[in-house]
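This part of the workshop introduces the protein records we will be handling. To make this concrete, we reproduce a full record directly below.
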Amino acid sequence: MTSRNRDPFAKHDEADLVMPTSYPSAAQQYGQRLFELRTHHGLNVRDLEERTRDIVDARLTDLRARPEYADLTAGELDELAGKPVSKSAISRIEKGKPPSVDAGKLLDDALGAHGTLEILAGPARAEPSGHLPVGPPYFVGREAELEQLSRLTSQPPAREEPTVIVIGGLPGIGKSALVLKWAHGMYARFDLVLYAAMGGYTSGNPATHAEILADLLRGLGIERDHVPASEQQRETLLREHLRRREQQVLVLLDNARDSQQVEPLLASLAGTTVVVTSRPELSGLVIDHNARTIRLDTLTDHEACALAADIIADERVEAEPDAVAQLVDICASLPLAILVAAERIAADPETSIGEHVAALADVERRLQLLDIDESGGVRAAFEWSYRTLRSDTARMFRVLSLYPRPRVTAQAASALAGVPVDKGLRLLDDLAQAHLLHQVTADTYHFHDLLCVYAAEQADGQPEAERRDAIVRLVTWFHYTANAASWALTPMRDHHVQLPPTPHNVTPLTFGSFTAAFAWCSAELSSLPAVARLGIDHGLFYATWRMAADTFEYLVHSRPIGLWITLMELAVEAAEKDGDDARLAEAQEKLAEGYRRGGRLDDAYDLDERAARTASPRGPSRTLGFALLGMGNNAHAAGDMTEAFALTRRALDVFIAVGTRIGEAMGHISLGGVYRDLGTRDLAIEHGVKAVGMFAAVDDQHGVAVALLPLARTYLAFGELGRALCACNDAQAAYAATADRWGRADALGIKAEVLDRLGDHQAAALSLREALPLLRGHDDDKAARLDAYRADLETACRTTLPCP
């Protein structure tokens, strides 16, 4: 639900222009009278602030001149003289926030109101929520959190202790707005609402225990002169007043620094409902006082757009809906950022929303444009939290900005920071407790976009060597971890590289099983292109090339074609910049295979040809063999069997010469396919069986499955249906030990062809039904072909027996 309560005082510099004509509450009546008196005297808000400052200065001068105050400290004299009323406080009071006793008297003196404002202030503060800050003028969403707050406070608290609820979330997420929105609607439930600004993350020092007690006592209607001097007396008086009243009391403690700031208050608040907002988690309150917690997340895109639309004129939003969506995206749905940006746009109707968004798209200027002044805005909100961090936690915060994606694991973050993983977890937990990082799983964290921008600003202030060392450690960690994963995925293959001991004080992951390695690749491979780009940009060419090359085993198993091509294009770039022909040829050959499996056959052939030319001067090599094999496969697909045979035979000879088992086995698979399509049964079967045997000899189950399927096609082509069906079933069994979804689906597709030829249309259709879920979202073209085949089979079997 959206509150379209547009407030004419949303911006301080507009506070002199318009005044609402009616207020339903005494606090709002006070605000209207203050506005009338101020404008009658021809004062703007800043002028009135200066008048109150002059009065306070005059009081202070008078106090210093009086002998009876000679022994007081400067701080005690300041306390007696009072504080000026700031222009922001004046604007809030004029919008309906009841004044404190001191502010009421001071404004009365400054405007010569002769007690008029003092008289109005009493009823304003006596209302159930009378001394609460004004509620947020713009508010959207949060229905679930509002309902949760109401549910958690639905039962009266025990007389002996308070009910405590903690509202947490990152800076600018809208914690105070939520609580004030909710509290202003609680007139019927609570007889009295008390409020104290804890000042935990604002300019200046956090409020002291004595100051908070004084605020709560004044909320009870106790005049300033009657508030006891000592903390103990204030605690006693607060306890006694609450006990005597026997009312339902809500206490809001806004912006607490930590549990230690809140805990001493709770002994005086027995029998009340206490709602605390804070950036840290306040685990102490959860453990010691059974506090319930509500964590705020960013707004949904729909809610964030609605919030922006509430502030910007509707006709402008309707004219540029895409620009509003981009604004929300740039602000990463953080309410404070959206409020600041939207108010800036609303105040500048001559500039389009799109133009404002274009300015915000400049990362280096973004936080500057989301500032209000040196003490307000997004950067200031982040700054107050950042300043509280210990030095090692602050360093972790800074280096996280170097990570190229918002989601980071504890292991990668620890590598960035150059610390052991157990310490890295502690530092990340500290950041999560401070709501400067969001913990997603036990060892995975999400860094909000704007926080990352702010962290990058802080990192820019550190020595260049520190930033480069962090990037070197990160790329090294991914390089070594990808290598470990490749060994775990196919330990029996003969092309893996044994890396030297890990440099740069990083601890890469190790994997004890195929499953663990495959899970890591599935989770982290989407990060690798960005990490590879970092590596190239920082001259880490070998590490980047090797990291990409070592993902090849996973790519073959999983077939994420777009990611395959991206990674291998980066490997090609790294090898080119490094000037290493052997690495370049290998990267070109692996990229060509990605193109081929993605259907880009011409690109694949051209790249394999380049790889072969690059590799040939060095003599026989694995790379040369696979480049020739790729070109042969292309010729086979094009129906040029003479070219296919020549290239495949040459490739097999190269593999035998360099002694690569997997290359030789793959050569036999391809040569068997060529013989099959040439109609040479015995040689086709011979080469196919040989490939299966070579993989089986080293227990390479994925290789066995890969070899069995072309052999099944050979049996099928020569009408040996029983042997073809056995080969399909054996391939399915071998694929069960791997995570190759495409391969399993291919086995089921070939099996369907065999069953169809055997006349069992029903079983063939069932086989295709089993294959389709493995392909959807993975290879939609193949899925469409198999689905069409399934439909034809089911049509055929309906003429005989019903299909399930």
About this structure: The longest helix spans residues 464-489. Residues 1-24 have pLDDT under 50 and may be disordered. The radius of gyration is 36 Å. The first strand starts at residue 2 and ends at 3.
